[in-house]
Amino acid sequence: MFAARRFPLLTSIVAVAVLATASVQAAEPRKGGTLSISIESDLSTLDPLNTLSSFNDREAGILVYDTLLDMDSKGRIVPHLAEKMEAAPDATWFRLTLRDGVKFHDGTPLNADAVIKHYQRMMDPKNRCRCLVDLNNIASIDADGPLTITFKLKAPAAQFPAVLTDTSAMIVSPAAVEKYGKDYDFNPVGTGPFRFKEWQRGSQIVYVRNEDYWRKPPHLDGVVLRAMPDQQTRYASLKAGNLDIVMNPAPGDIIDAKNDKNIQILNPGSLATSFVQINQTAPDVSDVRVRQAMAYALDRVALNKAIGKGVYKIANTVFGSGLAPHEQVDGYPGYDQAKAKKLVADYGKPIKLKMAVSAAPQSMLSAQALQQMWKRVGIEVELQTMEQVQLIRAALNRDYQIMLFRWAGRADPDMNVYQFFKTKSPSNLVNYSNPEMDRLLDAGRATTNEAERLKIYRQVNNILARDLPYLLLTYFDNYSLVSAKVHDIPLVPDGLLRLQTVWKDQ
Q1: Domain total in the chain
Q2: pLDDT higher than 70, residue 406
Q3: Measured between alpha carbons, how far is 167 from 58 in angstroms, rounded to an integer?
Q4: Cα gap 176→183, rounded to integer Å
Q5: Per-residue pLDDT averaged across 367-382, rounded?
Q6: What is the C-alpha radius of gyration for the chain, rounded to an integer number of angstroms?
Q7: Residues 338, 455: one domain?
Q8: Are 325 and 428 within one domain?
Q9: Residue 362 burial (CB < 10 Å; 0-12/13-18/19+)?
Q10: Side-chain half-sphere of 295: how many Cα atoms within 13 Å?
Q11: Is residue 151 domain-shared with residue 78, that is, in the same domain?
Q12: pLDDT in tens, 133-181
């Protein structure tokens, strides 16, 4: 962890859990083998510039790219491509010293010039990067030597170190961007532990070991990410030995795997939350009485038992269970059918809604259960099913009324609320606007005192519980089911699998 001035991320100490394991650790890791991992859907992109910030996109990205800073198992920010960080006491500038001798996969050096070019590309308004909401506070990026860069900010930003762990900090080779142009998406070049080999759209992405990795080269020969939407197929493939890892398995499979000596159940905790997001300008749901009725109609405990098999925790905030503010909330609506029915009656006209939902089986089960709960209080909901990439694009275009969604979460509270609830933010997908919220979000970003930030985000939680742009369901722990033949997976609260040290039995 950085010895320099500590910036409060408001992370709780997340318990690292291995719920079941049958693996026997050998004395020495073995080199070789290809790791096969299932993901829920195909990717939208391999270019951090164009990512829709889905969990799958980020997992694919960290194999080929490194970030300037990273997160450890306790949610702390630690060095990565940057070996040192200095910061202004008021969080108005941050100076990073890069590691010497690091090279991109194309052989070009990682230096201050390359990092600056990367950020210039990400920040160019013409490129329309979703990351702009995190980067638009940067006033300038200056090279203070071949390996030293200084980010100067327009306003204090306590969360900025966390930004340097995120997708926008997956550093891309400027030479590769220039060489491949519009075809860069199929030719990604980073400094990461694995090199990109091929992308078979709709099927799989193949990576091979980076023999020149700046840390030790990975033990694995390669990694394959397989797009497998059907949960039953994923789990059956794992049990049959055709997969090594199932990410985000069905709750029933987690329970079943507890009795299988050949499967490890890994749970690093989570920053993720599942919810129904509501377009605040759409018909009917623009009225807070309708949103309140929808919230009171939801028996979230019963939903978690029936669909989630009791695996997850009920959510009352957007911060996930891995961030301290997740416990700081008053008055989130609990289950109360009578209140829901009264609100519907007070509204005084029929409520007929359309909910966009992923076609994935688990999402459909949840959506159908929500549909029935709302029907009991007089709210009719039509389900609109679509593939995950289509769902994300509908959200980005605000082309929906309500939507069943999941947010993977980020390392600082600011990054979980500012972009989504700040008026006119590019990532404010629910068209939410509240001057009081805007003031608090600006204050949370500018404040470096940890106790004060906690107070601010408690107020944020309370406003969200009142205004209900999201109907919160559960904190979504990032479980993975792993073959007992796989060893030494580091568990990090963001749920992403860092595979540089992983090895498997042959």
Answers
A1: 3
A2: yes
A3: 7
A4: 10
A5: 98
A6: 22
A7: yes
A8: yes
A9: middle
A10: 25
A11: yes
A12: 889 999 999 999 999 999 999 999 999 999 999 999 999 999 999 999 9
Domain boundary among 182, 213, 232: 182
As a whole number of angstroms, the distance between CA 68 and CA 89 comes to 21
Question: What confidence tens digit (pLDDT) does each residue in 407-441 have?
Answer: 888 888 998 999 999 999 988 999 999 999 999 99
Given a contact cutoff of 8 angstroms between Cβ atoms, the answer to whether 269 and 408 are in contact is no
320 vs 472: CA distance, rounded Å: 11
Q: Is residue 79 part of a domain?
A: yes
CA distance linking residue 380 with residue 103, whole number of Å = 57
Q: Look at residues 424, 486, 505, 436 and name the one whose alpha carbon lies nearest to residue 133.
A: 424
Residue 470 CA to residue 278 CA, distance in Å, equals: 6
Amino acid in position 464 = L
Which pLDDT tens digit goes with each residue over 463-506? 999 999 999 999 888 899 999 999 999 988 888 899 999 999 98
CA 399 centroid distance within chain: 22
Count CB atoms within 10 A of the CB of residue 428. Answer: 19
With respect to residue 326, please indicate whether it lies within any of the assigned structural domains: yes
Read off the pTM. Answer: 0.84
Q: Tokens 């500012």: give the residue.
A: 418
Give the closest residue to 156 by CA, choosing from 410, 414, 411: 414
195 exposure class (CB count in 10 Å sphere: 0-12, 13-18, 19+): buried
Q: How far apart are CA 287 and CA 367, in angstroms?
A: 22
CATH of residue 127's domain is 3.90.76.10
> Which residues pair with residue 351 across a beta bridge?
379
Which run of H or E residues covers position 113? helix 112-123
Are 173 and 160 in the same domain? yes
Residue 149 to residue 113: CA distance in whole angstroms: 9
Same domain, 284 and 262: no
* Tens of pLDDT, residues 441-474: 999 999 988 899 999 999 999 999 999 999 999 9
- pLDDT over threshold 70, residue 19: no
- Domain housing 111: 66-182
* 187 inside domain: no
Residue 31 CB: number of other CB atoms within 10 A?
A: 13
Is 304 found in the same domain as 452?
yes
| DSSP character string of 261-277 | TTEEEEE---S-EEEEE
Burial class of residue 171, CB neighbours in 10 A (0-12, 13-18, 19+): buried
469 & 482 share domain: no
Spatial distance between the Cα atoms of 475 and 433, rounded to a whole number of angstroms: 25
Q: In this structure, what token pair is assigned to residue 445?
A: 């970003």
**For every residue of 368-389, which 3-state class applies, written as one string?**
HHHHHHHHHCCEEEEEEEECHH
DSSP letter for 183, please: G
